[in-house]
Amino acid sequence: SQTIHQWPATLVQPVGSPLSLECTVEGTSNPNLYWYRQAAGRGLQLLFYSVGIGQISSEVPQNLSASRPQDRQFILSSKKLLLSDSGFYLCAWGPGQGTSRETQYFGPGTRLLVL
Amino acid sequence: GESVGLHLPTLSVQEGDNSIINCAYSNSASDYFIWYKQESGKGPQFIIDIRSNMDKRQGQRVTVLLNKTVKHLSLQIAATQPGDSAVYFCADLSGGSYIPTFGRGTSLIVHP
Asked: Do B49 and A96 touch (CB under 8 A)?
């Protein structure tokens, strides 16, 4: 079966510091990968998605970036965090093919607090 | 832009009752719908999905109903339990897109 991991689970960072959040998927190959942010009491905002290694699509302009160095690894980064970057970051994977190709399955999330 | 919305932000029910969570969507091209459950501090969990060529789909204690005429989607939970307390999201996709539109969510509170 497929599993998705995110770390760290929680993170407290000062304003202006760098960020690196990692997401890995097991049990599948060539998945679609996604990064979302969820503010408190709000819905899910898609940040980036990737349909293959090195292929990144950005949905919103911001000081965040994403990379996919390996098939089942997705990294969210920032060179300098802003207070507004605080939130709950969720990684998701999707089959990208087959009968339920559009379905997305979420990881446990990383709660980021920028002070 | 078009988006998926939810009718009620909070739904309170008694344990054992049936729960109905509603969702309205506005994109007439939407053809795939998903319900997620998100417990506090956790990532959303896939519950059930339905395609536009179906009106109803059943899972374990859950049923999703789709009314394409009025662009309405509902999630029915039978014999609601305290463990069902969570925020429930609906999402829609259209035309083979991999990018869903999520609603803000409905908070389901189950009282013992």
From this structure: no
Q: How far is A33 from chain B (nearest CA, A)?
A: 10
Tens digit of each residue's pLDDT, chain B (112 residues): 334 544 448 999 999 999 999 999 989 999 999 999 999 999 999 999 999 999 999 999 999 999 999 999 999 999 999 999 999 999 999 887 888 998 878 999 999 9
> Among all residues of chain A, which has the CA nearest to that of B95?
A102
Q: What is the least distance, in Å, from the CA of B51 to any CA of chain A?
A: 10
Instruction: Tell me which of A1, A6, A35, A44 to substitute to probe the interface with B (most B C-beta atoms closer than 10 Å).
Output: A44
Tally A–B CB contacts below 8 A. Answer: 50
Structure confidence at residue A60 (pLDDT): 81
Q: Contact, B80 vs B13, CB < 8 A? A: yes
> What's the whole-number average pLDDT of chain B?
90
Q: Concatenated DSSP letters for chain A?
A: --EEEEE-SEEEE-TT--EEEEEEEES-SS-EEEEEEE-TT--EEEEEEEEETTEEEESS-SSEEEEEEETTEEEEEESS--GGG-EEEEEEEE--SSTTTT--EE---EEEEE-
Residue A86 is classified by DSSP as: -
| pLDDT digit string, tens, across residues A16-44 | 999 999 999 999 999 999 999 998 767 89
